[in-house]
Design a protein that fits this description.
Rossmann fold, 17% strand, two-stranded antiparallel sheet, single chain, rRNA_adenine_dimethylase, Ribosomal RNA small subunit methyltransferase A, Helicase, Ruva Protein, domain 3, S-adenosyl-L-methionine, alpha/beta, 9 strands, rRNA processing
Length: 285
């Protein structure tokens, strides 16, 4: 089956009309119609014929085509049945060569089972639906799955949260989680006109490179649990947020050992301080 012109909104719309399909807002579907941007983004993924890649939300396959053209083995996760049907036809020759597989369904519900059965890829890519971007990034980290490199195009606001530093309004448990697991670098900002349909928000492509010094704490599960607890009520102090987790005596001992005042708030603590607090708490419980 012949691919549509991935750079032309008119051609994409005509192709969808001919196949009785339409973009579904509930899935956060937007196609990147800037060829130069697509190439630049995939260049950062640093792939060759020995690479394995997961792609979330291939749509009509513009990025899929770019990835497979570089020889990588690709598994794509697609929730839209219509797109899944077309993508299977577009890349049938790669499927026959064992280079392409499609997993249909909601990636938030399918990725873990697929990973357990087949193992994770060494690369991750997605023009991620804005409504699931933070969730899929956090879920993989929480489940202990980290990729050698991940390149995601996401809502700029989500990207800012990923790289936010302590004391800033965008700093959250998500910021800490991302920076704990990866070194994060901005690739390019993309205005709405780079996409079709044009989204109401600006986007940013981000490169995430696996940290070699991970996890830098004695008990990663406790660290993640503590992180969720500390940021559960942003207006509360660190001490008050920790009480349900460790009780008054152990909370005070852990804070003292880590050199942290109980009166500060979680958003004022750096990643290093949070890791110290986790280790102090781990030695007490």
């Amino acid at each position: 089956m012949e691919h549509p012109d991935y750079n032309s909104p008119l051609a994409l719309k005509a192709f969808l009309d001919e196949n009785g399909m339409a973009m579904q807002k509930k899935f956060g579907q937007n196609f990147l119609v800037n060829a130069d941007a697509r190439k630049k983004i995939i260049d950062c993924l640093d792939i060759d014929e020995n690479s394995s890649v997961w792609e979330v939300g291939p749509g009509l396959g513009s990025m899929t085509d770019e990835i497979l053209g570089r020889g990588a083995k690709l598994t794509a996760f697609e929730i839209d049945h219509g797109f899944a049907r077309l993508v299977r036809q577009f890349f049938e020759i790669y499927s026959e060569k064992g280079k392409f597989e499609l997993v249909e369904g909601d990636v938030l519900k399918t990725w873990k089972k697929y990973s357990d059965e087949h193992g994770a890829a060494d690369r991750f890519f997605g023009n991620l639906p804005y409504n699931v971007a933070a969730t899929i990034i956090a879920d993989t980290i929480n489940e202990g799955v980290r990729f050698e490199k991940a390149v995601v195009t996401i809502q700029k606001e989500v990207a800012q949260r990923m790289t936010a530093k302590e004391g800033s309004e965008n700093y959250s448990s998500f910021s800490v989680l991302c920076q704990w697991a990866y070194n994060i670098k901005n690739i390019v900002d993309l205005a709405g006109g780079n996409f079709w349909p044009v989204p109401n928000v600006a986007s940013r492509a981000v490169l995430m490179t696996k940290r070699e010094d991970f996890p830098r704490c004695q008990n990663p599960k406790l660290f993640m649990k503590m992180l969720r607890q500390l940021f559960s009520s942003r207006r509360k102090t660190v001490r008050n947020n920790m009480l349900p987790l460790a009780g008054g005596e152990k909370t005070d001992q852990a804070l003292e050992k880590a050199g942290i005042k109980g009166s500060v708030r979680a958003e004022d603590l750096s990643l290093d301080s949070l890791l110290k607090l986790s280790d102090a708490l781990n030695e007490l419980i």
